[in-house]
Write a structure and sequence with these properties.
With about 280 residues, this protein is an alpha/beta fold. It has one domain: Ribonuclease Z/Hydroxyacylglutathione hydrolase-like (Metallo-beta-lactamase, Chain A, 4-Layer Sandwich). Helices cover about 25% and strands about 30% of the residues. The protein has 7 helices and 18 strands. It has a 7-stranded mixed β-sheet. A hairpin with a 2-residue loop joins β11 and β12. α6 crosses α7. The structure holds fe (ii) ion (2 copies). One fe (ii) ion (FE2) binds next to α2. This is MBL fold metallo-hydrolase. It comes from Methanobacterium alkalithermotolerans. InterPro entries: DHPS-like_MBL-fold (IPR041712), Metallo-B-lactamas (IPR001279), Metallo-beta-lactamase_dom (IPR052926), RibonucZ/Hydroxyglut_hydro (IPR036866). One of its GO terms (molecular function) is transferase activity.
């Protein structure tokens, strides 16, 4: 299996690719090609072309959740690919509120969704969409991830409420004796994602976890020490699971990454734009 990072917030110095705040992975196996997320704009397609990946060959596309930095490239995807369906959970309107007077809309373009509704497949329960490819709709809530999602809201019955990320899904690629977990932002908590995968596949070890962990370091000085401890604990908990390799980036901030790295050492890697992972 070859997993190519078509988009991440960062790229390596000198890379000819374009980076933006967004995420996109291309997954190639003999039997299929999958696109998991599409970045925030058309740039994921530019990078795909530079990396020799033909988007028209995608058999299945997935949008991990309803934030623009994961599905912003949808319009471009429909232009480049004429066959593949796009799997996602039902989406709504989502906001980031830094200043209560000006909430920032961070959802997908509703127009693009409506115009291409025939190619959208909504996931409402866990489903094996192709042999060995599982889209997981219900995530076990064992660990509290609320403090990692401060400032993120959704519209519910005309009111803005804290987002519970019921629009988020997880992808698990099942192999003979192992699984690979692919997550967009892990808003519901990376530990809950791992816990869910382990409970669904208790006999299999985790070959790799790939995705953003939404561990954004808070700017308020008073919270900093507490937050470092919080991240360290997450790293220690991850280490308790049967996980071989981890590739993160995107919404795992640099500070959080460095704290996790101290705990997880060689098992943890950064998935820059252009990173190719052979599994
Ligand atoms: Fe994100
Ligand atoms: Fe997100």
């Amino acid at each position: 299996m070859i997993i190519s990072t078509l988009m991440d917030d960062k790229k390596k110095e000198g890379s000819p690719l374009i980076n933006e705040h967004g995420l996109s992975f291309h997954i190639h196996k003999e039997e299929y090609n999958i696109l998991f997320d599409m970045g925030a704009s058309e740039y994921f397609a530019y990078n795909a072309q530079k990396m020799g990946i033909d988007l028209n060959n995608i058999d299945l596309a997935v949008i991990s959740h309803g934030h623009y930095d994961h599905g912003g490239g949808l319009k471009t995807f429909f232009k480049e690919n004429k066959n593949s369906e796009v799997y996602l959970k039902p989406l709504g309107k989502y906001y980031r509120i830094n200043d209560p007077l000006s909430p920032q809309e961070i959802n997908l373009d509703i127009d693009v969704l409506e115009k291409n509704s025939l190619r959208l497949k909504y996931i409402r329960e866990n489903r094996e969409v192709l042999p060995g490819i599982h889209l997981i709709s219900s995530i076990i809530q064992k660990y509290d991830s609320r403090q990692d999602n401060n400032g993120l809201y959704k519209m519910k019955n005309g009111k803005m409420v804290r987002d519970d990320f019921d629009h988020e899904l997880l992808m698990i690629l099942e192999e003979k004796d192992k699984i690979i977990i692919i997550s967009g932002c892990s808003h519901q908590g990376i530990l809950n994602m791992i816990e869910t995968a382990c409970s669904l596949f208790p006999q299999k070890h985790i070959k790799a976890i790939i995705g953003g962990f939404h561990l954004i370091y808070p700017t308020e000085f008073s919270q900093k020490n507490d937050y470092s401890t919080h991240i360290k604990k997450i790293g220690e908990k991850i280490a308790e699971y049967p996980v071989e390799m981890i590739y993160t980036g995107h919404c795992t901030s640099e500070k959080s990454y460095n704290i996790l790295k101290e705990v997880l050492k060689d098992r943890l890697n950064y998935a820059y734009t252009g990173t190719v992972i052979y599994l």
